[in-house]
Amino acid sequence: MRVRHIRIQSFRGIEDSEIHFKTHTLLVGGNNAGKSTICDALDLVLGPERLYRRPVVDEHDFYLGRYLDEDGAPVEIRIDAILTQLTPEERRRFGDQHLRLWDDYASEFIDEEEGGADRSGEEGVDWALPVCFIGRYDREEDDFVGDTFFCHPEPLIDADDTEALAELGAGLSRFSRSHKRLAGYVYLRALRTGSRALSLQRGSLLDTILQLEGDGAAEMWSDTLGKLGGLDPAVGDIPQLKEVRGELRERLGRFVNMAPGDDSAAFFASDLTRQHLREVVRLFVATQPSDHLVPYAKQGTGSVNLLVFALLTIIADLKGTQSVIFAMEEPEIALPPHTQRRVTRYVLSEMGQSIVTSHSAPVIEQFEPDSIVMLHRDGAKLIGTPIDPAKVKRKTYLTNKRQFAEAVLARGVLVVEGSTEAVVFPAVSAVLERVRADYTHLDFSGVSMFTAPGDGSIAKFGPIFKALGKKAWGVCDKPNGQLPQDVLDDRAEFDEFWESEELGIEDVLVKGIPVETQRRFLDDVSTRGDYPTTNHPFDPAIDDTNVPTLVHKVLKARKGEAYAYAAVLVEHCETEAELPTELVDILVAIDVELRGEPEVGFDPEVAVPATDSEEADPEVATETSAPEEPAET
After folding, report:
1. pLDDT level of residue 161 (50, 70, 90 thresholds)
2. Is residue 348 part of a domain?
3. Is residue 425 exposed (0-12), middle (13-18) or buried (19+ Cβ within 10 Å)?
């Protein structure tokens, strides 16, 4: 089973939006773009334990906090999900009456179209299960309610039957917890591996593993409680406690008819109830270099995250990994790059479907380009745009995948011809930030540097970044000869493209930076161990007219980001007047274009902060401490 499509209405910062998923989907976007909202929405529909928290939703889960309309009628949160690729067993369990024919290419149901049922054997046509979550405010109970339902078939209710119409779900069949367990949705939330995640409370990861591994839980609890009650020696036989126990028994006997004997007052290690054991039992872990066991919460953040992930993989294995829909937020948190890659590769290879959010290039690199969905907002509407493989060739993407991974996270991309330019522009930006009060550095503006793989190849990236929906700017040296029309057409796809009057970045620097600054540069770098002393010796008495020539030769001899001499030259500029005007104009134009625009995906009107309960008691979203669901009839 796979999630193919979701529609979210009036939930958090989303008024009405639709997102399509593939077998593996990476959601990328700016802060508050809606990545976590999508995962939470899926959890409301598919999470086996999610609905048994109280309240299911609250005021802040409604779009703009509006849970009543202007007439005082309740506004409904509605989340519709379409599940495809059902196994024969899943089809049997859910019942054919709840299934509909889905055209994957057109992304629509066709069973009610004329002749639609006859297309069931066509490629891209499959039986799908539409399910939904509906939540709203119940005025009579003065509380928020919510539940999940099969969306098909829609019940036939008389228009005059106001009571039936007002019922939550209006007669739809309930999509129960046992159905959701069959769907196999597992959700690992970012930064929320807290107090209940590794406890034995109902719905926690360890409790889920116990349930999946078979019978015997009832005997386990009763045996443990019996052993705690019959400890030998008893807790109350500790000398200090025994003395206190005797005093208490004597004093209480003056006012209360105590049972005879010394055991009429006792100390035990717990309340001797299942629920209390669930609350107090904790997992202890010893990690190198120490062999001392400590509660898991005392481990480092990265170790706790990996421990939770390890437990989730056990759950996935018990359910059968290929039947699991695994959602994971920001696996990079507190993990080094190599571990990020390993975790991501495991998820992609072992899970039936994965839905991942990330801000990390090592994570993004593991996904095929057509599996990446870039999220951005158009007002209150959340738009998910997958990378179009027809416009972004797989070979081009994989050849430059680290740079593309950073670019898809950026607000804009500055494409340059070589690695020298790639270090010069950030250096000029740093000087501008220092000397100009109204200028914002490229990094803080969210602009990513992209180095074209060869001279003359820069133009082709204009259409590529336009297809990605990114602002893109291009800079190149003066070309040799007339450019063909297709190159000029590609350049026109950039938001702006600058062609230098110089043949190389070294010419731009030596012609645009004062001789005094160049001399300070030579005084500095001539003492470095990598300075090309043999071919370009520096004499402090050199005439000013010869300084630019020597600097040009030194920059040529130490090109690129490995030596970064060009960036060092720029760093010796102390005022804006010392910087090359050509480079300043480019960076200021980019800054002006971005100024005043919010970060991609951030809309202060609809951004919803984490609730206090989430921050105070973070957790994995597969947990709940609510009572178990009543047995189904």
Report:
1. confident
2. no
3. buried
**What average pLDDT does range 160-176 have in this prediction?**
83
Task: Taking residues 248-252, report their average pLDDT.
Answer: 80
- The answer as to whether 601 is a domain residue is no
For the chain, the domain total comes to 2
Most confident of 45-54, 129-138, 498-507: 129-138
Q: What is the DSSP string of 229-263?
A: HT-SS-GGGSHHHHHHHHHHHHHHTTTS-PPSSGG
Q: What is the CA radius of gyration of the chain?
A: 32
Q: How far apart are CA 315 and CA 10, in angstroms?
A: 32
Nearest to 580 by CA among 522, 524, 501, 526: 501
Mean pLDDT (whole number) for 255-274? 80
Query: What mean pLDDT, rounded, does the chain reach?
Result: 83
Per-residue pLDDT at 197: 60
pLDDT for 602 equals 37
pLDDT tens string 310-329? 777 787 777 765 678 888 88
627 DSSP assignment: P
Q: What are the E-state strand segments in 244-358?
A: 284-285, 294-295, 325-329, 353-357
Q: Which long-range contacts (CB under 8 A, 24 or more apart) does 56-60 make?
A: 56/135, 56/144, 56/145, 56/146, 56/147, 57/135, 57/144, 57/146, 58/144, 58/611, 59/144, 60/12, 60/608, 60/611
Report the alpha-carbon distance of residue 290 to residue 389 in Å, rounded.
Answer: 50
Domain containing 100 — which CATH number? 3.40.50
- Tokens found for residue 207: 């409790």
Strands (E), 403-537: 412-416, 447-451, 471-476, 496-499
Structural domain including 518 reads 412-594
Domain end point (choices 155, 183, 211)? 183
Q: How far apart are the first and last CA of the chain?
A: 25
Within a domain: 559: yes
- Tokens describing residue 531: 């300075």
The pLDDT assigned to 276 comes to 84
pTM for this prediction = 0.75
Least confident of 125-134, 161-170, 214-223: 214-223
C-alpha–C-alpha distance, residues 186 and 183, integer Å: 9
Rounded Cα distance between 169 and 155, Å, is: 10
User: Pick from 401, 422, 361: which is nearest to 563 by CA?
Assistant: 422
Cα angle for residues 412, 28, 32 (degrees, 5° grid): 90
User: Mean pLDDT, to the nearest integer, of 500-518?
Assistant: 92
CA angle, 340 as apex, 339 and 341 as ends, to 5°?
90
Q: Would residue 199 count as lying in a domain? A: no
CA distance 561 to 422: 8
Percent of the chain with pLDDT over 70: 91
Torsion angle (degrees, nearest 10) of CA 453, 457, 462, 465: -20
Residue ending a domain, among 165, 183, 201, is 183
